[in-house]
Amino acid sequence: MTNLSESLVNLLNQSHFYKEFSFAKNRFFPEPGSEQEFADHVVWLRDTLIVYQIKERLSGGSSSIKSERAWFRRKVLGLAKKQVKDSLDFLRRCPNIKIVNQRGDVFDIKTPDIKRIFRVVIYRTPNVLPRDCLAQKFVTSISAGLIHVFSWPDYLMVLETLITPGEFIEYLTCRKDILGQYRLPERMTEKNVLGRYLWLPPLKAVTDYRIDEDFSKHVDRLISDVGKFDISYILDNLRNNIEESESNLEKNTDYYYILVELVKLQRLELMAAKKRIRKCLEAVESGSLELPYRLTSASSHCGFLFLPIQSCNISEETKLLVNLTVTSKYEQKLQRHVGISFAKRDSNIIYIRWVLVDYPWKHDVRIDKLLGEEYPFRSLREKIGFPYRFQRDQKDK
Q1: Residue pair 118/172 in contact by the 8 Å Cβ criterion
Q2: Hey, where are the domains in the chain?
Q3: What angle do CA 45, 157, 100 make, to 5 degrees?
Q4: Tell me: the pLDDT tens digits for 250-279?
Q5: Does residue 48 sit in helix, strand or coil?
Q6: Contact residues for 243 (Cβ-Cβ < 8 A; gap 6+)
Q7: What distance in Å separates the CA atoms of residue 168 and residue 174, rounded to the nearest whole number?
Q8: How is domain 4-224 classified at the architecture level of CATH?
């Protein structure tokens, strides 16, 4: 039976990670007649899996420091840790694990696509925990590795701050590095860790993992900029407007694989995508002929092509979109590339079509010749910027 804490996580995760990638019905049959629960909650973003265990302390009974500490150690550090280990064991030994996402679609998450797995425990209690319990940000296991531990208020704060799924995944990576390298003093809160990430992302070239209490101010000073990278109005169009592609995937799978590449983008990449979408819409509205706009994600290594098309029939639009997407993928030597076209037909309605190209790169003399004779793209200019903006301190003004 789902408890209140599990319901809260289910609702929050379906909003943050989309219903498509949030799994709340996770019972499966590892063997005929033997039903097991894979995890309390799962987030699956093709190559990334987040396994959740959720623990709730019911009201009533003793709320002494001794009883609260005993509950935390037994349920959060003990049982939840064992259950996470069980989830990883299922992944190792079960031939398939079919679970249902919050849109009602069934997926087998036992796939070679998964390259990284995060383990997360969330706990919720009506009582005040001892300081040493609140300071417990992780637990380790020989077989499961580092398991992230969040209180419900802290988890909510993190997702409200890190608006995109890609940012949360990067934060878990950063958090693991910090907690694995630096012994956090008890007085340090999740807000201190989050502020450290916001102020000094990412940690790839950083060797100083120390946390300062002053880092928490960066969470309060963060400017969200949601309007600058919100492309939900475009994503609403996606499911029913995917063209046949060269991905060798079913159309419904194409929808998921295109969407996952979009939701993994960082906010700067989403801002760049929104800017290119706006340029395409302006070109279609004005009737001007423009070369396609492009973007390549530095984190996921997926390419995106945005193509404004002037009047032509649907089959010609599709052929042009696929050919340019294939060519852009080839030029950049990418595994995956998404193409998006914008065209006005018959009325003032702008039609948006999507295509996914997904297969290993290999040399193609024909495309080399095409790129040499008539280059169809703008040059790619990669700009690395700082992802977050902050309000100035009063003392800095």
Answers
A1: yes
A2: 4-224, 227-373
A3: 30
A4: 446 788 899 999 999 988 899 999 999 999
A5: strand
A6: 318, 321, 322, 353, 354, 355
A7: 10
A8: 3-Layer(aba) Sandwich (3.40)
Cα distances from 286 to residues 31, 193, 377, in angstroms, run 61, 48, 20
Identity of the amino acid at 17: F
| Pairing assessment for the beta strands 48-56 and 116-124 based on DSSP bridges | parallel
Structure token pair of residue 295: 């973007």
Q: What is the mean pLDDT of residues 318-330?
A: 94
pLDDT for res 247: 47
d(CA 175, CA 170): 8
Specify the higher pLDDT residue, 250 or 163: 163
pLDDT attached to residue 230: 80
Residue that is written with structure tokens 């100083």 in the block: 208
CB 342 within 8 A of CB 307: yes
Please compute Rg for the chain using Cα positions: 23
| Predicted pLDDT of residue 249 | 44
> At 196, is the secondary structure helix, strand, or coil?
helix
62 versus 270: the higher-pLDDT residue is: 270
Return d(Cα 188, Cα 214) in angstroms, integer.
Answer: 10
DSSP 352: E
User: What does pLDDT average to over the chain?
Assistant: 87
Reported as a single tens digit per residue, the pLDDT across 10-47 is 999 999 999 999 999 899 988 878 899 999 999 999 89
Residue 234 has pLDDT above 50, yes or no: yes
Spell out the alpha helix ranges (H) of 136-244.
152-161, 165-181, 190-199, 217-221, 226-229, 232-235
Tell me how far apart the alpha carbons of residues 358 and 258 are, in angstroms, rounded to a whole number.
Answer: 10
Give the integer Cα–Cα distance in Å for 143 and 372: 52
Give residue 293's identity as a one-letter amino acid code.
Y
Q: At what angle do helices 152-161 and 190-199 cross, to 10 degrees?
A: 20
Structure tokens at 9: 């996580």
Task: Record the tokens describing residue 354, joined without a space.
Answer: 């999507």
CB count, 10 Å around CB of 273?
Answer: 21
Cα angle for residues 284, 286, 289 (degrees, 5° grid): 65
Question: Are 154 and 125 within 8 A, CB to CB?
Answer: no
